[in-house]
Specification:
The protein is an alpha/beta fold and 137 residues long. The chain has helices at residues 5-18, 33-40, 52-60, 97-107, and strands spanning 23-27, 44-49, 64-67, 83-85, 113-117, 130-134. It starts with a helix and ends with a strand. It is globular. It has four helices and six strands, in the order αβαβαββαββ. The chain has a six-stranded mixed β-sheet with strand order 3-2-1-4-5-6, with helices on one face.
């Protein structure tokens, strides 16, 4: 039996705490369910999502969130100590995955953990395993 999304998030939270990281960017944050778990764990959460409806719901939950797409994030270089983007690639055409990952690395601090699920190009909805990348040091 594989890891559940909750197991993945718990493992990532443990990693952030072990490394002393106090903030995370959540790409495709939806209505903020994961964001609330980060906040409850003492990690500052900034969410982005392409859906205005999702951002409205995330803000209603008290989260810092804004409308943005993964290929063009409205943040400075090295702005975040970590990135949580496990749902970000699954809905995109495979030709866009590299652009999104490059943008995530751009906004992540040097050597920051970036959590993604790398989709299977033939079946992106199935995922290809939870992976933690690192931004360039």
């Amino acid at each position: 039996m594989g890891a559940t999304p909750t197991d993945e998030l718990t493992g990532f939270l443990d990693l952030l705490k072990a490394e002393g990281r106090r903030g995370v960017l959540g790409l495709d944050c939806g209505q903020g369910a994961d964001g609330l778990l980060f906040v409850r764990a003492g990690i500052h959460f900034t969410g982005v999502d392409a859906s205005e409806e999702n951002i409205h719901a995330a803000r209603a939950r008290g989260l810092s969130a804004s409308v943005a797409a993964g290929r063009a994030l409205p943040f400075a270089d090295a702005a975040f100590p970590a990135v949580w983007a496990v749902d970000a690639l699954a809905g995109l055409p495979p030709g866009e995955w590299d652009d999104v990952v490059r943008e995530l690395r751009r906004v992540a601090e040097p050597d920051a953990p970036i959590a993604v699920v790398l989709p299977d190009p033939g079946h992106p909805e199935l995922g290809h395993g939870f992976t933690v990348l690192r931004s360039p040091a």
